[in-house]
Amino acid sequence: VRSGRRACLKPSRKSMKKSNKIEFVSVVVPVYNEEGCLQELIDRTLAALDGCNRRFEFIMVDDGSRDNSAEIMKEASRKRPGEVISCILNRNYGQHSAIMAGFSQVRGDLVITLDADLQNPPEEIPNLIAAAEEGNDVVGTIRQNRKDTFFRRFASKIVNKVAQKATGVKMRDYGCMLRAYRRHIVDAMLQCNERSTFIPVLGNSFARNTCEIPVRHNERAVGDSKYSLWKLINLQFNLLTCMTTMPLRILTYFGLFAAFCGYLLSVYIVVRRFLWDDGDSWGQGGVFTLFAVMFIFTGIQMIGIGMIGEYIGRIYNDVRARPRYFIEEVFGRGEEK
């Protein structure tokens, strides 16, 4: 997929005969300690959805917040039952698990995910709906004039490159959670039982037509990012190991390279010994070189063992088949209008 100002795949004429009209929109927002901006998020999101002239549901998932976020969500559900749904998890499971919990509650034809920090404005929702109605299964977004730190932007570039290699879909901004998915894509994701999930990549793996549209990006007005340096590293590692076996393949290439280097070194030692034999002084002088080479190869082996262990650990977690989340309560689920 080529990305630009508006990089959408054009559906064929045959597919255009089918109706791509979106009748019912579901918006899923994971919430974790966002009481400072949560009411503004609710007001702006509902205003954007009201202006779309479509049936909608606004599903907020409380991911084990320790502040007053859950109470604000429940109050919004009391004011607009059937349209504002509050899904309360029993503890913190992480952003992607919370979104999957929201997916289990959706009823719409199109499902839009949105972060609660208002860095991606809810006013962009109509643009995602319009792009989906052009025949796209997944609509991604490209953040314009990002307000994040240099470290966050650099980390995002790495994540995007890895995701492109893993999926074969060359989207420029996998890190932006403001995205839209057709209902059949969401249903397919819900059938996946792996414990570690990176939703943008998982959604693209089931999509036929995808596109990206530019969206605004604002500074975080309240609070701090929930992704620390360690969590970003874990996210990158999850992406590497849950969607592809590429790390194991790279280790195989490293092993072949190391074996080839060892072969060349052995040839050099034999030739040096027979042609330029300078006695024990040369043997003693090469000890530290051999130690250095040995440490390099040992390090490669340890990395390989650790990587294999990571995959085995994920197999163990998947075999246990424990739930990715547990929904404690659901508020605001009224009768459909």
Instruction: Please give the number of β-strands.
Output: 9
pLDDT averaged over residues: 78
- The main sheet orders its strands as 1-8-6-7-5-2-3-4-9
Helix content: 40-55%
The string of secondary-structure elements, in order, is EHEHEHEHEHEHEHHEHHHHE
Question: Gist?
Answer:
Helices cover 49% and strands 15% of the residues.
Descriptive overview:
- Helices cover 49% and strands 15% of the residues.
- It has a 9-stranded mixed sheet with strand order 1-8-6-7-5-2-3-4-9, sandwiched between helices.
- The model is unreliable at 1-7 and 9-17 (pLDDT under 50).
- The protein has helices at residues 13-16, 35-50, 69-79, 95-103, 125-132, 150-167, 183-190, 199-204, 229-243, 246-275, 280-285, 287-320; strands at residues 7-8, 24-31, 55-62, 84-89, 110-113, 138-143, 179-182, 210-215, 327-331.
- The protein starts with 6 loop residues before the first strand and ends in a 6-residue tail after the last strand.
- It is of the alpha/beta class.
Structural descriptors:
337 residues; alpha/beta; 9-stranded mixed β-sheet; 12 helices; 9 strands; elongated; disordered N terminus
